[in-house]
Amino acid sequence: MPTILNQLRRDAAALFEAGVRAAHPSHIIQPHLHDLVNILAIAGQSKDVRHASIAVHLVAVGKAACTMAAAAQHIIQPENIKSAIVVTNTENFRPIAHFQVIAAGHPVPDEAGLKAGKQVLQNLQNLAPHDPVLLLLSGGASAMLPCPAPGLTLIDKSITTRLLMNNGANIYQLNCVRKHLSAIKGGQLAQYVAPHPLHSLILSDVPDNDLSVIASGPSYADTSTFAEAIAILHQLNIWDKVPDSVKQHLIKGRNGRIQETPKLNHPCFNTTQNTLIGDNMTCIKAITTKSKSLGYRVIHYNYPVTGNCRREAEKLVHWCIKNKKAIGSTKTAIITGGETTVTVTGTGKGGRNQEMALTFALMAKRLQLQDNWVFLSAGTDGRDGPTDASGAVVDPQTINRIPNAATWLENNDSYHALKQSHDLLQTGATGTNVADIQIALFHP
User: Fold this and answer.
1) Which domain covers residue 405, as residue numbers?
2) Separation CA 76–CA 233 (nearest Å)
3) Residue 55: per-residue pLDDT
4) Is residue 74 in some structural domain?
5) H-type alpha helices, 145-302
6) Averaged over 354-382, what is the pLDDT?
7) How many structural domains does the chain have?
8) For residue 299, is it within any domain?
9) Does residue 143 form part of some domain?
10) Which of 80, 288, 293, 399 has its CA 20 to 30 Å from the CA of residue 167?
11) Cα atoms in the 13 Å half-sphere on the side-chain side of 151
12) What 8-state DSSP symbol labels residue 405?
């Protein structure tokens, strides 16, 4: 491989690493925890001692749950934590002293997550007067903490989740349906905890940082409805495929026979506080700074990228060709992020980032994009779809290393295609989750 491409690949990986590092909870959560500790007067740092005996109940859920909980443990004294439950996925699981840590299924909910949900509600069932709840939320929590609404089962939710994901549902559509099949999502956890104070620190994996969507918004007012959930299932042509119990539940909700999720004027939100501590732009800002330090001119492209991964890759290649004179004049970094979707019609293995990278490589070859480029697309959590890769880094030689690359792509088998071309990016679990990053580097 030419020396220039080697350097571009190393730079792309270094830029991605800088972005992930900037969004790690250990760097960004502590100032917020210090502020919160002072408000609650639970660590002896506040001059307000009116409630000095108050101890917090801690719940951490999501791909960053362990790193967020460990950071909290450094700020809040152990004697001030009445109960603590941490729920994350297998890749991010690690023991934390004095905390109950559970590894739950993702992206499809499982029995471990179901048990964790029951444990969370049990811990919060009999709060003492004035006892606050600290909720540490990150992406992935929707799947990891399933609490099916009355009349529904874990299997009902698992089947529906798979159907939504395999048919191209975006995060907003997916979580709208999830909220209306749950007993805690869509602000219902805040309703359960009220009138006790609930403080949520939130790491966003949603491009527009909509707090009602991140982790399906258990502590935030829901703006969606049962009617919208039904419309989404029809729009994706899966209404007739979801379990009958799901259809009946949603219809009852639409017809007013089941209470809607709590809206903004619900009194439970009078004692609920939600604070965003980090997001996809946290990554992009760090990548921008690092790019400039490496001598790249930076272009921010079409943020956020949220459409179908193949279409978005094709659009980016066309944009690069259209702007090839400006790009080709100097070292250039094109940076964006977001969360694309994938429609599964084949039987292969992959994820949205791998599929986007493979599509970019195919289109770049077909349209004869200039030679000295690399393209990285990866999930900041270190996992892309049901694979051990966070994404991929491709270059002009990628397609030459994959016989019949288009056939692999059509079978949704980007993982095995990119594995044989040695283009998979495998970082392992990162301890954070702020959606996806795309970086295209060009060298004149």
Assistant:
1) 3-18+281-442
2) 44
3) 82
4) yes
5) 154-166, 171-179, 188-193, 226-235, 244-254, 280-293
6) 96
7) 2
8) yes
9) yes
10) 399
11) 14
12) H
Residues 6 or more apart whose Cβ sits within 8 Å of residue 129: none
Same domain, 12 and 59: no
User: Please, what is the Cα angle at 114 between 194 and 30, to 5 degrees?
Assistant: 55
| Cα–Cα dist 250/255, whole Å | 9
Same domain, 349 and 270: no
Q: Is residue 272 part of a domain?
A: yes
Query: Which pLDDT score, from 0 to 100, does residue 324 have?
Result: 83
355 and 211 within one domain: no
Q: How many residues does the chain have?
A: 444
> Contact 323/385 with Cβ under 8 angstroms?
no
Which residue would you say has higher pLDDT here, 286 or 48? Answer: 286
Report pLDDT digits (tens) over 7-38: 999 999 999 999 999 999 988 998 888 888 77
Structure tokens at 258: 């089941």
Q: Do residues 362 and 409 share a domain?
A: yes
C-alpha closest to that of 41 among 197, 191, 270: 197
CATH classification of the domain holding 390: 3.40.1480.10
* 3 state SS for 308-348: EHHHHHHHHHHHHHHCHHHHHCCCEEEEEEECCECECCCCC
Rg (CA), the chain: 23
Can you state the angle between helices 30-40 and 65-75, rounded to 10 degrees?
Answer: 50
Compute the distance between CA of residue 52 and CA of residue 43 in angstroms, rounded to an integer: 8
Q: Specify whether the CB–CB gap between 203 and 139 falls below 8 A.
A: yes
Strands 373-379 and 391-394: antiparallel
State the pTM of this model.
0.91
Same domain, 105 and 86: yes
Check residues 74 and 280 and name the one with the higher pLDDT: 280
- What is the average pLDDT value for the chain, to the nearest integer? 93
Q: Which three-class secondary structure state does DSSP give residue 152?
A: coil
Q: Are 304 and 280 in contact (CB under 8 A)?
A: yes
What does the pLDDT read at residue 26?
A: 87
Q: 376 and 288 in one domain?
A: yes
Domain boundary among 278, 309, 342: 278
Give ∠ CA 299-302-304 in degrees, rounded to 5. Answer: 115
Decide: helix, strand or coil at residue 410. helix
Three-state secondary structure call for residue 270? helix
Q: Helices 244-254 and 154-166: crossing angle, nearest 10°?
A: 90
Closest by Cα among 395, 400, 402 to 425:
395
Q: Which pair of structure tokens corresponds to residue 237?
A: 């042509």
CB atoms near residue 155 (< 10 Å): 12
Please give the backbone phi and psi of residue 378, each rounded to the nearest 5 degrees, phi first.
-155, 155
Whether the CB-CB separation of 356 and 438 falls below 8 Å is answered with yes
Residue closest to 338 by CA, chosen among 354, 325, 353: 353
